[in-house]
Structures are given as structure tokens and as C-alpha cells.
Amino acid sequence: MLNDVAIIGGGPVGSRVAEKMAGAGYRVVVLEQKEQMGGPVCCTGIISQECVDTFGIEESTIVRKVKSARFFSPSGKLVSIQRSDSQACIVDRPAFNISMAKRAQSMGVEYMLGSTVTDLTVEIDGVAIEVTRRGEQYSDCYKARAVVLTTGSDLKIAHRMALGDLGDFITGVQAEVATDGVDEIEVYLGNQIAPGYFAWLVPTGPQRGLAGLLSRQSPGLYLREFIAFLRSNGRITTAEPEFNYGFIPLRPISRSYGERLLIAGSAAGQVKPTTGGGIYYGLLCADIAAENLGRALREGDLSARNLAAYEKAWRNKLGSEFRVGHWARRFFELLSDAQIEWLFDIAIEDGIAEKLVGDGDISFDWHSKAILRLLGQKAVSQVVRMIKSPLPFSRTG
Ligand SMILES: Cc1cc2nc3c(=O)[nH]c(=O)nc-3n(C[C@H](O)[C@H](O)[C@H](O)COP(=O)(O)OP(=O)(O)OC[C@H]3O[C@@H](n4cnc5c(N)ncnc54)[C@H](O)[C@@H]3O)c2cc1C
């Protein structure tokens, strides 16, 4: 049966593209390798209130709403960012995935679970999809006029289709822990804790939370030490939790379209480089993908040339966030613990955090404005000059 659109990967981004395409009247199938939608997901599930409002995220999937975040320097100095209204929501990721899939199904999307896509062949009238299901390979079951790849950090198909490469990756690792009195998001900085990155402790329920970190080297080793540190400070009571690992892209893919083909979400590197959060940007790009694919289907022109408009549109919306955010991330990686302490001192003495919150420049999702404002602060620009990091103003994609 020829579908109009096949979505490869039933995460939130795939389900959102599917929902929008089916809502526009197209016949859509989602091929998902997991046997069930509510399987475990390695993700903390923090999204902004803006994301909840924009996409009408189902309230029942939200396990916690938080108004503030506490940042700890390597020596334990604290900068707290506080707002009067809720800034971040923590969703139960398996429940969130199910909810997004149900929305798509209610529009008529068919989900084929336990279906791993192993290859795609672009033909004159559509894309032939090779699927492995319970060890059996099927090469003639699925064909679609167009395919959207939303395979998360699994890039095997993207590489087979010679789409662009992701320039930078990081490993995330986290564990579910029993907490004691943790009500806010806590972020820990320092090269002993998560070199160049950060660790977190996030409340997910009464006396439950997720502890995790990002690191380029030995993430499991650093998480073991972080768990021991939290335990010795009485923040958590779990001794040896199970660790889950995942890859997070830090730069968008160099080419996100091909003949009858688009790629979106984490697979396209549409992730905030500052924090590794990919749900909101992925959903925004899902809508851009659906809009452009719908237009191309209506025009009957699924050529790469016509689908290139998708890439132009998401880069227009998010390009400066990716560019400035990646610069900030690389800059942060160069800082020693002493320099991080210095930045904390500046933030505390000059009240920079309060100023940015007061002026509305710090937003959970849009970081480039705050980063550029910070660079305008004399003390901060001194640190940048000392590190000799080229500023993020040149357009490098
Ligand atoms: C430790 C960690 C913490 C994170 N915390 C946050 C956070 O707090 N907030 C946030 O916004 N983001 C967070 N992220 C990132 C977030 O998880 C991703 O950006 C988000 O899940 C991307 O959604 P997606 O739909 O693009 O991909 P995914 O959610 O990864 O979904 C991809 C789907 O494709 C399926 N698939 C893959 N290959 C195939 C194939 N060949 N055939 C069929 N199916 C396939 C997979 O099974 C999966 O279901 C975190 C990531 C990690 C690793």
C-alpha cells in the first residue's frame, strides 16, 4: 500500500510530524522499533511552559512544575534563578511519548511497533522501506511518497541516505534516585563533577528524582562520583542506581533534506547546544517539516530542490540559537574551575542573574539573547578575552 508519508521513529518529533500530516489529510504510517510506546526513555523530560502552551502538552504527563533553578559553583557557591510563575515542567517521558502518539492516532495515523527500518530506496514514484520485524526482513511491505526520519540519536539510516553529518556529540547519563527535600532543579558545575558540562538533580515526584550529567569522557565514572557526592550531602538516599545512557547532538546536521526525504528532531541535531534539551526545538522543527512537506505534496514536487525550503525555514527560526549556543558551550568547556568561580562571583556581586531575569532576557528556551547580553558585561568580556575564544558573531552555520 502506498502511504503518503512514512515516519521512521515514533518519538515526540515523529509523532508530531505524523499528527500534523494526518491532520492535513495525508495517509501516514509511523514505523517504530520499540515493541511498545511506553518503553523506557533516557531523558530528564524538562520542557518549558512555553513548550507546554505552544503544543498543548497533556497536563497528565507533567509530573512537576518548577519556578526556579539553583546553580552550584565547583566550591558550592549558589546562584538561584527564580521567577514568580512556573518556568519549567518535568514530563514523564514514557507517558509523554504515549500521549503524543495517541494524538497522532486520533488523526488516523497507523503505528507499526516492533518495526526497525534498516534501509530506504528512493524510487521514481516513492520510497521503498526495508523493515526488520522479530528477526524477519521485509522489503516490500511499505512504500511512501515521502519519508521523514525522526530516529533520535540513531543515525544509521541518515548515514545510509548520505544526509549531512552532525558536527558534535555529547553523552548523557542519568539514574532514577530517591531524594530528600529536593523541590527545585539543581545544576552543579565544575570540572571534578562534569568536565566542561554540568550535572543535575531534578525532582520528578515525592522523594523521587533524576540525577544525571553530560560529559565527553567517562560519563558513567563521573555519575558514580556525583551520586556519592549527593548521597554524602543528604540530597539523595539511593546508593547504586541503574544508569541509562544516551547521545545528544550539539550541532545541527549539515543537510536535513534529500529526494523525497526530510530529517527532524535529535536526528537532525535540532537540540539546544547549551543544555542538550531537544524536545521543544524538535517539536518546532516538526511543524516546519510538516508545513514544507505538505506544500511539496500538494505541488507534486518532492525533489530535494523543493524540499530545501524546510532547511531554510528551520535555520531562519533557530540558526542563531544553534550558533551562539554552540559557541557558549565550547567557551564553557575551556573554563577552569577558578574561572567558573570567578563568573559566579561576578554573577553574585553584580546581580547579573537578577538583571537578566528582571529584563526578561533569560528564557528557558531562547539563550542567545542572554549570552550576547552577558558578553556585553565588562567583567564577562574580560574572561572571554583571557580565554581568547573567538566571539560568536561570524556566520559559520
Ligand atoms: C540523559 C538525557 C537527558 C535529556 N534531558 C532532556 C530534557 O530534560 N529536556 C529535553 O528537551 N531534552 C532532553 N534530552 C534530549 C531529548 O531526549 C531528545 O532531544 C528528544 O527525545 C528528541 O526527540 P526525537 O523524537 O527527535 O527522538 P527520540 O525521542 O530519540 O525518538 C526516536 C525514536 O526513533 C526510534 N528509532 C530509531 N531508529 C529507528 C529505526 N531504524 N527504525 C524504527 N524506529 C527507530 C527510537 O526507538 C525512538 O523511539 C535528554 C537526552 C538525554 C540523553
The name of the CATH superfamily of the largest domain reads: FAD/NAD(P)-binding domain
Bound molecules: flavin-adenine dinucleotide
CATH topology of the largest domain: FAD/NAD(P)-binding domain
* Beta-strand percentage range: 25-35%
Q: Determine the fraction of residues in helical runs and give it as a percent range.
A: 25-40%
* Broad shape: globular
Q: Can you summarize the main beta sheet?
A: 8 strands, mixed
Nearest-integer average pLDDT: 90
CATH level 1 name of the largest domain: Alpha Beta
Give the termini separation.
Answer: 39 Å
- How many domains? The number is 3
Explained architecture:
This protein has helices at residues 12-23, 49-55, 93-106, 156-160, 219-232, 279-299, 304-333, 337-350, 352-358, 368-375, 378-387, and strands at residues 2-8, 28-31, 46-48, 62-66, 68-72, 78-82, 88-91, 110-112, 116-122, 127-133, 136-149, 169-178, 185-189, 198-205, 208-215, 244-249, 257-258, 261-263. By secondary structure, it is of the alpha/beta class. It folds into three domains: 2-42 and 93-167 and 251-318, FAD/NAD(P)-binding domain; 46-90 and 169-248, D-Amino Acid Oxidase, subunit A, domain 2 (D-Amino Acid Oxidase, Chain A, domain 2); 335-387, no CATH class. Strands 1, 2, 8, 9, 10, 11, 17 and 18 form an eight-stranded mixed β-sheet that branches. A seven-stranded mixed β-sheet has the order 6-5-13-14-15-12-16, sandwiched between helices. Helix 1 (12-23) packs parallel to helix 6 and helix 6 (279-299) packs antiparallel against helix 7 (304-333). Flavin-adenine dinucleotide (FAD) is lined by residues 8-14, 31-34, 42-47, 116-117, 150-152, 154, 157, 172, 174, 212, 246, 248, 265-267, 271, 276-280, 282.
